[in-house]
Design brief:
The complex is a heterodimer.
Chain A (H helix, E strand, L loop, with lengths): L1 E6 L7 H23 L4 H14 L1 H26 L7 H18 L8 H27 L3 H21 L33 H19 L1 H11 L1 H6 L4 H28 L10 H11 L4 H24 L5 H22 E6 L5
Antiparallel strand pairs in A: 1-2
Chain B lengths: L4 E10 L2 E11 L3 E7 L5 H8 L7 E6 L2 E3 L4 H6 L2 E4 L11 H6 L9 H14 L14 H13 L5 E5 L7 H16 L3 E5 L3 H7 L2 E6 L2 E6 L6 H9 L17 E11 L8 E9 L3 E5 L6 H9 L4 E9 L2 E2 L5 H6 L2 E4 L14 H9 L12 H14 L16 H13 L5 E5 L7 H16 L3 E5 L3 H7 L2 E6 L2 E2 L3 E2 L5 H8 L4 H4 L3
Parallel strand pairs in B: 3-8, 3-9, 6-7, 7-8, 13-18, 13-19, 16-17, 17-18
Antiparallel strand pairs in B: 1-2, 1-4, 4-5, 9-10, 11-12, 11-14, 14-15, 19-20, 19-21
Helix pairs in contact in B: 8-16, 11-12, 12-13, 13-14
Classes of the chains: A mainly alpha, B alpha/beta.
Chain lengths: 356, 505
């Protein structure tokens, strides 16, 4: 007797919604067991990790703030992943967007005007776009794996940020801390309402998710991107230019990651300092897959992952659970989703030895 | 003499397609036995059953007179059956000896294995440097590795699937020497080929398959290549009908001494191909698979290949560098060989699949795709081309081969093309659907379109086309009017024919 995977002729539509939900429940169950094995109460962990971020208004705002860059980056990554182009370096594009946008903020320090913020966003998006163009061109021109180049460029961006905030852009009055000046008023994303923390970044992210939704659903471009990922030979038959699609999806993905970088530095951090990225560019990869590579899914899973990240911060304080547990849990969640996705495409059957 | 292996009543279906029907075959020690047949005749299916890669639906395999169950290549090897595949399965970066060691159970490339391999190599004239990495070797040397891999298991029966297809003439010669030695040692060799001359030189017996059935057994040394060719492709020109096309008009597709570089290592180079297809005319390209037909399709459609010399013109315009959509804009339509994953997106709805070939020339909605229109068009194709669908607007993968092919042909015909190029129109398609597709193509030609059909099915070529050309080794024969041509003549053109036939090209 053995287990075999048999390809399904057709993938059920209903499963598109049930599978991620079931995967989430399975991951929660396994996570609960781990917490229990660590000698903590799984119920308490659930309370801190999931319930509190959702019920406490302050925590909920934090969740949405955290979800904003995840949304922007993962929506961008959708374009790459749907086309089976593997941009693993969104973190680098995110950092570079922050550097470029933050650079404008630093150069316009003490200035004011409504033009500063749009300029920052433009600079950040262009920075991320240019940075993503490198692996795209290396792939289309020389056939170099975009997985490696995009990933390695993350470390370059990381070091560039490090150099800038320790060198030319260090705040002269900052007691030698490796950080830039605090941005002036015009370079900060202000709360949308009094006493709150939410800023325009969330609306921007939701708007872009809506645009991506329409692009994929209704336009030839979205069709071409999905076709070149699903069946490259069919895309070739349709005359969709492979190199052009590669470059375009990388540019879109880089621009959105760059924009996310500006939103993060102008909204949350309000200055440049090492590590402002917090690995969100990598987390967004999980978000994109958790959302099954759809704009709606990515939007929702950005919130789910943000809940876990915020929950992890409080779990660290209140339950003394290590932050790494959250990373572990995100990995677990991704594995559950991928297993679920495989089971959508393949039917697990038990094959008995054939009778002789 | 006692047969080593006997196949009795082997029958195998793939869906509705009958691949082998009640095939009997005996292999005796000390003989080289040819298995002949056109592409799709069922040769590969039969040897895959013998090598344990496929299970027959009925029938049995006897080894040394006893029925055995061959449910895996491992079981087949345990019964002394070895196989050398047409396409090599070697690791390029590893050395010869490492490649030989890989499939052996628990074997490592140690000195004992080296000694055994060296012995076999010396015995059968398969000398090769054991430490050379495979990527530095020629096709003939790679094949030696595959043969040594088999010989090391001391097989009693060795299956060779079109072994000379990748070899140069001198490499073939040395292969034959090896096979003669194996035969002298008492091994039984099953030699699959469609090259009649080499079969006549080498083989003691020949079994000929056509459409999954055995149509004859012969001593190839006693019968002529002509007779073998006739056996392979079948008798009778009765059902030949001239194309329903009207008068042939001006040339729509023109290939003038077109040369195309091979795309892959195993690819074929097109060598100064001349071809004209006029409006109202159906031209068939016949030939054994792998003689450059895929390359020809790709070159004409613009899906691949680099033109190195010559001219390709569609509707009077030079299209050497044009992409597929520019070719579609001057009135060309293409139906590629692979239905799923090339002609269609397998997991997309039929209506969405229209976009693939329509977006460059038809109004499908801009900037937003007009789904309603696509659905209307899809319903129209389903209705007009008798496509049987399991439910409304299914995904492409849900259709049977024949119905999907009807849909794809319908999609292109609806664009009212001036030229349609179709690669293997009825490959894996049931007879009813095949007839429907042929009729569609004839109607299209009758309405003034130029039709080019690339096919390995000689019946199809003869029944459909006004004129027929044959591809062999990347070269194209001169066209022959179908009415004035016999199967045997075409059969000879397809294989390594006599000198007089050679003179035609």
């Amino acid at each position: 007797m053995r287990l075999v995977l048999v390809r399904r002729r057709r993938i059920s539509r209903r499963r598109q919604f049930t599978t991620p939900a079931v995967a989430l429940l399975v991951a929660l169950a396994i996570g609960g067991v781990i917490v229990w094995l660590m000698g903590r109460s799984p119920w308490q962990a659930l309370q801190v990790f999931i319930i509190e971020p959702l019920t406490d208004p302050w925590a909920l705002q934090e969740v949405l703030l955290k979800a904003t860059p995840l949304m922007l980056i993962s929506i961008g990554l959708l374009f790459c992943f749907r086309a089976s182009r593997w941009n693993i370096g969104a973190e680098g594009q995110f950092l570079l967007g922050g550097i470029c946008g933050g650079g404008i903020a630093i150069l316009t320090h003490e200035m004011s005007g409504a033009w500063i913020m749009p300029l920052m966003m433009l600079a950040g998006a262009l920075g991320g776009l240019a940075y993503a163009a490198i692996p795209a061109v290396l792939r289309t021109r020389f056939g170099i794996s975009e997985i490696l180049t995009s990933l390695m460029l993350v470390y370059v961006a990381d070091l560039l940020l490090d150099y800038l905030v320790r060198g030319p852009w260090r705040d002269p009055k900052g007691f030698n801390f490796p950080q830039s000046v605090s941005f002036s008023d015009a370079a900060i994303l202000h709360p949308l309402f009094e006493g709150g923390r939410l800023h325009i970044g969330l609306i921007l992210a939701l708007g872009i998710a809506a645009i991506a939704f329409v692009l994929f659903r209704r336009t030839l471009f979205g069709f071409a991107v999905a076709a070149s990922g699903d069946a490259p030979r069919a895309a070739n038959f349709a005359g969709f230019n492979e190199a052009r699609i590669t470059v375009l999806v990388f540019l879109i993905s880089g621009a959105l990651a760059g924009l996310a970088g500006v939103v993060e530095v102008a909204g949350q951090v309000q200055q440049l300092r090492p590590g402002f990225g917090q690995g969100l560019g990598f987390t967004a990869i999980i978000v994109a897959f958790l959302g099954r590579l759809t704009p709606l899914g990515a939007t929702l899973s950005s919130v789910v992952i943000a809940i876990l990240l915020i929950g992890a911060e409080s779990a660290q304080v209140s339950l003394k659970l290590p932050f790494d547990l959250t990373r572990f849990f995100m990995g677990l969640l991704l594995i559950c989703v991928l297993v679920g996705e495989s089971l959508d495409r393949y039917d697990l059957q038990i094959e008995r030895e054939r009778a002789t | 003499m006692e047969p080593i292996v006997e196949l009795r009543g082997i029958t195998k279906y793939f869906g509705a397609l009958l691949a082998n029907a009640l095939v009997d075959l005996t292999l005796r020690p000390g003989e080289i036995h040819a298995l002949l047949g056109e592409n799709g005749a069922g040769k590969s299916t039969l040897v895959k059953i013998l090598y344990g890669l496929l299970a027959p639906d009925s029938g049995e395999v006897l080894v040394a007179g006893r029925p055995v169950k061959l449910d895996s290549p491992r079981a087949a090897r345990a019964h002394g059956i070895g196989m050398v595949f047409q396409h090599f399965s070697l690791f390029d970066e590893m050395s010869v000896i490492e490649n030989i060691a890989v499939p052996l159970d628990g074997a490592v490339a140690d000195s004992a294995l080296r000694r055994r391999v060296m012995e076999k190599a010396a015995q059968f004239g398969l000398e090769i440097e054991l430490d050379r990495p495979v990527h530095t070797l020629s096709a003939g040397e790679r094949q030696r590795i595959e043969i040594l891999r088999v010989l090391i298991q001391e097989p009693k029966v060795i299956i060779l699937d079109e072994p000379t297809s990748v070899l140069t003439p001198s490499e073939s010669e040395s292969l034959f020497v090896t096979l003669e030695k194996l035969k002298a040692e008492g091994a039984s060799i099953l030699f699959i080929s469609h090259k009649l001359e080499e079969v006549r030189r080498l083989c003691d017996r020949a079994t000929v398959l056509r459409a999954g059935r055995i149509v004859g057994t012969a001593n190839p040394r006693r019968v002529s290549a002509q007779d073998l060719a006739t056996l392979m492709v079948g008798e009778g020109i009765a059902e030949l009908s001239p194309g329903a096309g009207g008068k042939a008009g001006e040339p729509v597709l023109l290939l003038d001494r077109l040369s195309v570089m091979p795309e892959t290592v195993h690819g074929v180079e097109l060598d100064k191909v001349d071809l004209v297809v006029r409006s109202g005319e159906i031209v068939a390209v016949a030939g054994v698979a792998g003689n450059g037909q895929s390359e020809l399709y790709n070159a004409i459609s613009g899906e691949g290949g680099r033109i190195s010399a010559g001219t390709l013109a569609i509707a009077g315009r030079v299209m050497n560098r044009a992409n597929i959509n520019e070719r579609r804009r001057v009135g060309a339509a293409f139906v590629p060989e692979a239905r799923l994953g090339q002609a269609t997106l397998p997991q997309s709805a039929l209506s969405d699949n229209i976009v693939l070939s329509w977006h460059a020339t038809e109004a499908i909605g801009s900037p937003f795709i007009d789904r309603e229109r696509l659905e209307t068009v899809a319903q129209g194709i389903v209705r007009d081309f008798d496509v049987r669908i399991p439910r409304n607007d299914p995904v492409a993968a849900q259709l049977s081969g024949g119905n999907l092919q009807k849909y794809i042909v319908g999609r292109e015909v609806k664009r009212t093309p001036r030229l349609i190029v179709i690669d293997q129109p009825s490959w894996g398609v049931d007879a009813r659907a095949a007839r429907h597709i042929r009729q569609t193509l004839m109607d299209l030609a009758a309405n003034g379109a130029a039709v080019l059909v690339i096919t390995q099915d000689l019946d199809e070529a003869l029944s459909l086309a006004d004129s027929i050309v044959v591809m062999r080794k990347g070269r194209m024969s001169a066209p022959r009017p179908t009415r004035a041509t016999t199967r045997a003549e075409i059969g000879l053109l397809m294989t390594e024919g006599s000198r007089t036939v050679e003179g035609v090209t």
